[in-house]
Amino acid sequence: MSTGLTTQEITELTARYTFGTWRFQKDWKPLHIVDADGCWFTDGAGKKYLDFSSQLMCVHLGFKNQAVIQAIVDQARSLPYIAPGFATDVRVELSKLLLEVLPKGLEKFFFTTSGTEANEAAFKIARMYTGKTKIISRYRSYHGSTMGAIAATGDMRRWAMEPAGKIPGVIFAPEVHCYKCPLNHQYPECGIACAEYIGHMIENEGDVAAVLVEPVVGTNGILIPPNEYLPRLREICDKHDVLLIADEVMSGWGRTGKWFAVDHWDVKPDILVTAKGITSAYMPLGLCATSAKIASYFDDHYFSHGHTYEAHPMTLAPAVAAINEFKRLNLIGRSRDMGNYLGEKLLQLKARHPSVGDVRGLGLFWAVDLVRDQKTKQPFNTKADKISGVPTLVEKIAAQMMNNGVFIQAWISHFIIAPALIISQEEIDLGVKALDEALSIADAELANH
């Protein structure tokens, strides 16, 4: 669809009439994008960019997967919408596929249009089912932008909503982050103190309905837990009759080299929420999946939740196609194999650049942490810098990479590298090379201090 406007006009009018999220609005000049294919997107001037983070870590199949596109077209022609109180072929077809790929025991589904809404559903279900109110989240976490989800978000994106953002009943635990432990412990001598602390919280808080975790933390740094962490957390929740909610909005759908991140540790949550890669972001779909035990509670108790766009046929059809494409292309295994290749390349950067403090990841889900000092692990920027408008070093580096034709997500003091699962070795080499060259900006910053 052409508007007849110039690229400059599209950029100016976008900034004038719409909000740019999580940013200051002054001087926002969004890049005009006109096309995308595979792992690349193209701006209005015809310049192509390698997408090294699959946009918001969501375009798992790359752009223009024809099977997913065709599913959207076919569904639009047959049944573009029907209210969620009706049954549809596509709703059953997707449900049957989900039973195959989700962790065993998750057997009842509520379909939303975002990960945020899926988390909101999980909170309500947990509170209705248990009759308890409190939810334990963790500080380095992001669970969505609506009132309940932002209240359960541990990072500074919650701050703007306070005190309203502090909905009664949400409390925060320390994250699992062995590179920079919030409890100043060392693994493995710590005895997984960050998990044990959650048990301590449950015992002393009372009335805890659920513990909410990203099994592999996303935006806040791709934090990989030690092997003992999630199994121990599962034991703690079972001991105290508390539900375990896994937020796999970002870590699901092959991103970590398994269908879902919890599969790495064979942990089965009571509730799993996901979105993003479920349709490769071609349509907005979120999922809240619960155990059969939780589901059976509502046979005789009122299920007090719902949306106009719940189980929207146009969102379900591309999910069916996407799951079949994950299988056909063996993208779960490919994520694991290509992730190993990517990880080796990124670890080489740490050896070459004194500004790189840590490199960590799983599958095609990696972070590169920048520090002023590798021994003290002091970051270049802080959360306060981000919300006060101080230009961060990672944003400067990301801008340089864009100039060189590679798009990467930067957050406070680290990069999130999560390309489409179809990425090739040659494209990985190109992306890592661009990062390698741009890290000279950070190394120079060290040399000047």
Secondary-structure-based class equals alpha/beta
Strand order of the largest sheet: 4-10-9-8-7-5-6
Oligomeric assembly: single chain
CATH fold annotation of the largest domain: Aspartate Aminotransferase, domain 2
Please summarize the sheet with the most strands.
7 strands, mixed
Using DSSP, what is the number of strands?
A: 15
Number of H/I helices:
15
Top CATH class of the largest domain: Alpha Beta
**Ends apart, CA distance between termini:** 51 Å
Spatial shape: globular
Q: CATH superfamily assignment of the largest domain?
A: Type I PLP-dependent aspartate aminotransferase-like (Major domain)
Per CATH, which architecture of the largest domain?
A: 3-Layer(aba) Sandwich
Mean pLDDT: 95
Helix amount, in percent? 25-40%
SSE run: HEEEHHHEHEHEHEHEEEHHHEEHHEEEHH
**Low-pLDDT segments, ≥5 res:** none
Give the number of domains.
Answer: 2
Rg result? 22 Å
Q: What portion of the residues fall into strands of 2 or more residues?
A: 15-25%
